[in-house]
Design goal:
The chain is built from 13 helices and 26 strands. It is α/β, with parallel strands linked by helices. The longest helix is centred in the middle third of the chain and has 20 residues. The chain is globular, with a radius of gyration of 24 Å. The structure holds flavin-adenine dinucleotide. Flavin-adenine dinucleotide binds next to α1, β4, β7, α8 and α10. InterPro entries: FAD/NAD-bd_sf (IPR036188), FAD/NAD-binding_dom (IPR023753), NDH-2 (IPR045024).
């Protein structure tokens, strides 16, 4: 039995052909489609390619980029401590036995076992999308920033989930310092030197702390900027930050940030940011050219185009075996999936969206896909959250792991050691370690390469067809 559709992403799906008594006559490889090449996608495909028997499975991975992003290193990439190329893992090299399709799944018809995928080629050819058939579906598109309907946010907000955003933000911050240094208008200078971050989870706090550290260091190279001229503000709606490291360590992090002259506003919301003025719920108005939005994530919107069962919050309803509830041959894990936390005291608790669960779930998921193909029993996912580590800039950090609390240099060291051990491939580990060692010997990089975002600008200017981007 074949579903017959062929696509640019390889041959049609292999199915198990059976005679009238149900015994397998020929067994074609099962076609496993992995949507998403992040934590879950990469690790699931990696385990599958290692553990599947010869001829047992064909693995196709669809991801909008040809790389996986190791998100916990984005703040260090923004600070210039790790180069952007080293926080991403090339899918083609790491998943040598898989077929990689660079594209974006836009819909899934699970009854027909087909995913619709938008690729660059299909767009250029005007065909729009291709159909990829499969036997087993692993749906792991992760999450997207949870933007709220705050006036002006869509126009001025900057997210912090991708390597492009992290490097764009680094360039932007340094560019604001260049603007402040060269303007004679005190209002422009003030707005350029005010950096507002909304959201006190690890993404927001680490991004703010690393960038503040880097920017104040860079200020020493400007003849007319002092480190204290830079104003960093952290806006958090609840009364604490970094809930992942526990209450006591969260309070320590607030003290540490305030001690560095960072304005931490707890119990405060961003009400609007129109005309580049951040208006906060405590009544303050902060003219700013930098508004970073890291106030949480929500499941990827593509899930709504799959017809698969979702929770109220839009995550895929999953069983502890990482199957999508009530559906055969469909699996999920990570930020996109509502997986029951079997270690929680309160029934109905879901595993939190973080890398700790994503990596471990991927291993169980891959094992279960293979077990189901082999007719073997499935394993339940069970992992008790062990705590978290967070960096607060160079040589500063906070951690709570297995109940052990650490702060300052030991926590920072643990953060680096932990993530170095976790980042995929020996190649990445070696490159990152080399960068850290070199950074210990030389001074920090402080240039903005924002012009990389407009590579044709100089030539267009020479050809008389364009305007210099700075002129706009
Ligand atoms: C700045 C930052 C720091 C973090 N630090 C930590 C930390 O210290 N500790 C921790 O535990 N967690 C941390 N996290 C959270 C952690 O990174 C996520 O929980 C984890 O990445 C979830 O894995 P995932 O595979 O579900 O999603 P992701 O890793 O986000 O992967 C999803 C993939 O799917 C792709 N995709 C999206 N839509 C489609 C589509 N339509 N078709 C095909 N592919 C698609 C995406 O491009 C992406 O590659 C951090 C997150 C951020 C943003």
């Amino acid at each position: 039995m074949r579903h017959g559709k062929e696509c640019g992403a390889g041959a049609g799906r292999g199915d198990h052909e059976e005679d009238h008594e149900g015994a397998a006559l020929t067994k074609e490889p099962a076609r496993i489609l992995v949507v998403g090449g992040g934590y879950v996608g990469l690790y699931t495909a990696l385990h599958l390619q290692r553990e599947a028997r010869r001829g047992e499975a064909e693995i196709v991975v669809v991801n909008p980029e040809a790389y996986m992003t190791y998100q916990p290193f984005l703040p260090e990439a923004a600070a210039g401590s790790i180069s952007p190329r080293h926080v991403v893992v090339p899918l083609r090299r790491t998943l040598g036995d898989c077929e990689i399709v660079v594209g974006e799944a836009t819909a899934v018809d699970h009854a027909a076992r087909t995913a619709t995928v938008k690729t660059l080629a299909a767009e250029e050819e005007g065909t729009g999308t291709i159909d990829i058939p499969y036997d087993e579906l692993v749906l792991a598109p992760g999450s997207v920033s949870r933007a709220l309907p705050v006036p002006g946010l869509a126009d001025h907000g900057i997210g912090f989930k991708t390597v492009e955003e992290a490097i764009g933000l680094r360039n932007h911050v340094l560019e604001q310092m260049d603007i402040a240094s060269s303007t004679r208008d005190p209002q422009v200078r003030d707005a350029a030197l005010t950096f507002v971050f909304v959201g006190g989870g690890y993404a927001g706090v680490e991004a703010l702390a690393e960038l503040e550290d880097m920017a104040r260091y860079a200020a020493r190279y400007y003849h007319n900027l002092r480190p204290d001229d830079l104003k960093f503000v952290l806006v958090e709606a609840t009364d604490r930050i970094l809930p992942e490291v526990g209450e006591e360590m969260g309070r320590y992090a607030v003290r540490e940030l305030r001690g560095r002259n960072i304005d931490v506003r707890l119990g405060t919301r961003l009400d609007s940011c129109e005309n580049r003025i951040a208006v906060l719920s405590d009544g303050s108005r902060l003219p700013t050219r930098t508004l970073v939005w890291t106030a949480g994530v929500k499941p990827h919107p593509v899930l709504a185009a799959t017809g698969l069962p979702l929770t109220e919050r839009g995550r895929l309803k999953c069983t502890a075996e990482l199957r999508i509830e009530g559906v055969e041959h469909a699996w999920s894990a990570g930020d996109a999936a509502a997986v029951p936390d079997l270690t929680a005291e309160q029934p109905g608790t879901e595993c939190a969206p973080n890398a700790q669960h994503a990596v471990r779930q991927a291993r169980v998921l891959a094992g279960n896909v293979l077990a189901s193909l082999r007719g073997k029993p499935l394993q339940e996912y069970r992992h008790r959250y062990v705590g978290s580590v967070a960096s607060l800039g160079l040589h500063k950090g906070v951690a709570q792991v297995y109940g052990k609390k650490l702060k300052g240099y030991p926590a920072w060291f643990m953060h680096r050691a932990y993530h170095l051990s976790r980042v995929p491939t020996v190649n990445r580990k070696a490159r990152i370690l080399a960068e850290w060692c070199l950074a210990g010997l030389f001074k920090r990089e402080i240039v903005s390469l924002g012009s990389l975002e407009h590579p044709r600008a100089e030539f267009e200017l020479a050809a008389g067809t364009g305007r210099h981007p700075e002129a706009s």
